[in-house]
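User: Predict the structure for this protein chain, please.
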Amino acid sequence: MTDPSLDLDAYRRRIGFDGPFAANRATLEALIARHAATLAFENVEVLAGRVPRLDLAALVDKMVRRRRGGYCFEQNGLFLAVLQQAGFAVRTLEARVRAGVPAEGVTGRTHMALAVTLEAEELLVDVGFGGFAPGAPLALASRVPQDDGASTYRFADTEGDLMLQCRTSEGWTDCYRLLPSRPEPVDREMGNWFVATHPQAFLRHNLLVSRSTPRGRLTLHNDLLSLRPPGAAPLEARSVDTGAELADVLADGFGLEIEAADLEAVRRVLERRPAGT
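Assistant: Here is the predicted structure, written as structure tokens:
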């Protein structure tokens, strides 16, 4: 069933996709690549004190018409609708984020990803995990390393769950822990509310922006701009020191059209952070 909230032609123009629109692997890979290169992961909405809306009309308005990005619930929510309209068999997944979390730390079910079934094989699809988002579908049943063209990933069985890991210059890094449960839309609403409003939620106090580029994955974490080249090469990094430079990086590096009031809100959040964090 076609959802009138999704203007598929506008989405195709937004990401620069002019290929055939069929439910096959070639189309899936091309859509992931173009989406990741165009629609940046970003949490400016949360830093400006708002809870992102997850209804499809709002996602289309923000990311397609207003040329913004979004975080996992937004990115994968929009991509879910696109894949469904293209005829893919797709369902939602939920996960506990592990990237940057101490081994003993327990995290909530605050990440949304997708599973696409093609030719009886179930594939992980995720355009909403910032700097570690896989750039190609990954076979969920496989336990051998899988290359997405820029990075190498693998799945590891972990106490009944499935851990996604990415190979970096420091070795295998945990990304997130996929759960066997099948989330309902209300679960995404709850996760979205927690991420946007909980006093200790990471994305309430940190700027995180990322997108795919021809040279690698470009990420802005607070005032640190880094590029993760293909393979397991070390990061290339530099600081973003002024408000004017921040605005330029968001516009030129990530293609984001951020309103002045929201830029000021981001700047205030960064100024509140202790030096050296």
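The two ends are 48 Å apart (CA to CA).
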